[in-house]
Amino acid sequence: MKKENVIVAEELTKAFGDFKAVNAISFEVKKGEIFGFLGANGAGKTTAMKMLIGISKPSSGQATVAGFDVYTQTESIKKNIGYMSQKFALYDDLTVKENITFFGGIYGLSRAKIKEKREQLVSELGLENISNKLVGSLPLGWKQKLSFSVSLLHEPKIVFLDEPTGGVDPITRRQFWEMIYKAADQGTTIFVTTHYMDEAEYCDRVSIMVEGKIEALDTPKKLKEQFKVDSMNDVFLKLARNIE
Amino acid sequence: MKRFIGFIKKEFYHIFRDRRSLFILFGMPIAQILLFGFAITNEINNVDIAVLDHSKDATTESIINKISTSKYFTINELIAREADIETAFKKGKIKAVLNFEKDFSRNLIKEQHATIQIITDATDPNTANSITNYINAILQNYQQDKNKGIVVEYQIVPQTRMVYNPELKSVFMFVPGVMTIILMLVSAMMTSISITREKELGTMEILLVSPLKPFQVIIGKVVPYIFLSVINAAVIVLLSIFIFKMPVQGSLFLLGLESVLFIITSLALGILISTISETQQAAMMISLMGLMLPVILLSGFIFPISSMPVPLQIISNIIPAKWFIIIIKGIMLKGVGMAYVWKETLILIGMTIFFIGLSVKKYKIRLE
Predict the structure, then answer these.
(1) Predicted local confidence at residue A236, as pLDDT
(2) Staple partner for B268: which of A187, B69, B86, B355, CB 3.0–4.6 Å?
(3) Is B17–A93 a contact, with Cβ atoms under 8 angstroms apart?
(4) Partner residue opposite B208 with nearest CB, options A55, A102, A105
(5) Which residue among A81, A87, A93 sits closest to B18, beta carbon to beta carbon?
(6) Which residues does UniProt call coiled coil (chain A) (predicted)?
(7) Which chain B residue is nearest to residue A93, measuring alpha carbons?
(8) pLDDT by residue (tens digit) across A215-234?
């Protein structure tokens, strides 16, 4: 059975003046897939992602996200996606519960639904004792797990994660990836940018961006065979050297 | 709508959990109005003066008496020699010296003419001026009493009447200005800071990715401040009525409406500032330098616009606070209605629309 495509990009381009931050990238992401979006800093990952989540208009090319067009149907896209940015982005001066309630609210969940989700989430993350504490007082790892859960509150079809594990210890990163797997098992598509190459191994498929272009796109296994190396790290280095 | 209420609730959590912003919101208005009301004043009250009396006769004595019994002056020192005048000033306490010439009474009767020298400390020119005027007034008054019944052939007697603030209380002048500053500060600075804070924290991005439309985000951020600013305006008006006995001659309702209009103008400015600044610090600096200084210097709050050089008079027209001060002075002190302030009101509405339009344009450019 062939799975449907939830993200399709064709020749998607974003230019700032003469500089093409994203240069005609094309790819598809299938439903329930964990799609790794790799690249060095400044390769254009974040810019590409911003076009897909509807907060930046492409200069040219086509793309659909969850079946909606990125030029004309950004409102529908926003209802169907979750987003977690590289900066931790819950409110520090609100409690765990208040944050959940607030973000549930802006996605238009009913009061009963929010309550149900809130209790489920608090018990899943083991936050019962601190659910009335200000988020600012939690350790970064917990914040990030909470932030991920909040981005899933409205049961989006696709979750975009922009370097979600930056600055987190290895154990928490591991736990974080378990959460990602669980969400993917339940049918949520995961679109994740990272520059930790070990994390790239966890993805179903990865694309590697260099200077605005996608230079490689396949499963980690096939990429390693193609470049005749043992790790994704070496794939990445080889690619970067070839370009230079 | 439900989303919206949730948003506003969250905004209030931010405000009430941040002591610093709570202080700016509620502590400052009260502190400022009390400061301007009590401490900063242009009035002359109990000014210390010294007297150098070379004749020591009945006339000089009764003049000195008249001056010292007025509530404006206190005779602090009696000086014996010309040389001591300088020393008296240098001590810093006295602000003026009255120097009566020798044989004052005799000269007055024989030559119809006697001289008093008024020497004032002009390190503070305004006060020096006022002191001279007050002493002159007392002397004239004395003279008129003396000349009662004597027919003078030609005499012009000016009858002055100070209207709208007959007691010349400076607090009447300050209240409209302070109210303007506070509304501007709370509305423009606090909103621009709270919007840039979301940008800094990265939560703005999350909000923009959510189904909330950008204008909903902005309105959600602004509504709590409208509410708080209205409370502030009310507190200021109540303080000025009950503590400073300032009358509100015109309609309180119109005063309220105009205040809401000015609050919205300031909020629009705050939004504009937030679109051009990336950090909270920048937003604060722009608000302070770009709004506070012009409001204090060019709005006619302290320095009369009519006595400024022409270029500054022209610049003062683009300052929203100038128009609002004209409006509230009119309503509070003169009791005028809409028929008199419609022009200023229209200018404020026009400015508000301009600021909002400009912010929308800036905002769109950012999203492209």
Answers:
(1) 85
(2) B355
(3) yes
(4) A55
(5) A93
(6) none
(7) B14
(8) 889 998 998 898 888 888 88
pLDDT tens-digit readout, B199-240: 888 888 888 888 888 888 888 889 999 998 999 889 888 988
Which of B8, B9, B10 is the best mutation test for A, with the most CBs of A within 10 A?
Answer: B10
**Which domains can be identified in chain A, with CATH numbers?**
5-85+136-243 (3.40.50.300)
Put simply, the answer to whether A93 touches B14 (Cβ < 8 Å) is yes
Show residues of chain A in contact with B212, CB under 8 Å.
Answer: 106
Per-residue model confidence (pLDDT) at position A14 = 92
- Structural domains of chain B in order of their starting residue, each with its CATH number: 2-40+169-367 (no CATH), 47-146 (3.40.1710.10)
Judge whether B211 is closer than 8 Å to chain A, CB to CB: yes
Instruction: Determine the distance in angstroms separating the CA of A51 from the nearest CA of chain B, rounded to an integer.
Output: 10
Query: CB of B162 within 8 A of CB of B168?
Result: yes
User: Who contacts A130 (Cβ-Cβ below 8 Å, separation ≥6)?
Assistant: A96, A138
Task: Beginning with the edge strand found earlier in the chain, give each strand of the sheet holding A68-69 in spatial order.
Answer: A19-30, A5-16, A60-65, A68-69
Find residue A34's DSSP bridge partners. A190
DSSP class of residue A128 equals G
In A, minimum Cα distance to B18 occurs at A93
Residue B86 in contact with partner chain A when CB distance is under 8 A? no
pLDDT (0 to 100) of residue B209: 87
Say whether A87 and B368 touch across the interface (CB within 8 A): no
* Residue numbers in B near A113 (CB within 8 A): none
Q: Give yes or no for B367 touching A (CB within 8 A).
A: yes
Closest CA to A28 of A10, A7, A57: A7
Global pTM reads 0.80
Burial class, A5, CB count within 10 angstroms (exposed 0-12 / middle 13-18 / buried 19+): middle
Which residue in chain B has the smallest CA separation from A52?
A: B209
Asked if the C-beta of B368 comes within 8 angstroms of chain A's C-beta atoms, the answer is yes
For residues A48 and A2, the model is more confident at A48
Span B325-342, average pLDDT: 90
Residues of B in contact with A53 (CB under 8 A): 209
Q: What is the pLDDT of residue A1?
A: 46
Give the residue from B212, B233, B263 showing the smallest Cα distance to B29.
Answer: B233
pLDDT digits (tens, 9 = 90+) for B94-143: 889 999 988 888 888 888 888 899 999 888 887 888 889 889 888 888 88
**Cβ separation of A106 and B207 shorter than 8 Å?**
yes
Q: Is it the case that residue A65 has pLDDT exceeding 90?
A: yes
Q: Per-residue pLDDT for A142 more than 50?
A: yes
Residue of B nearest to A87 (CA): B202
Quickly state the pLDDT bin for A185 (edges 50, 70, 90): very high
- Angle, vertex CA B216, rays to CA A109 and CA A63, nearest 5: 75
The token pair at B176 is 């409209």
ipTM: 0.85
**Mean pLDDT across chain B:** 86
Tell me: pLDDT of A244 over 60: no
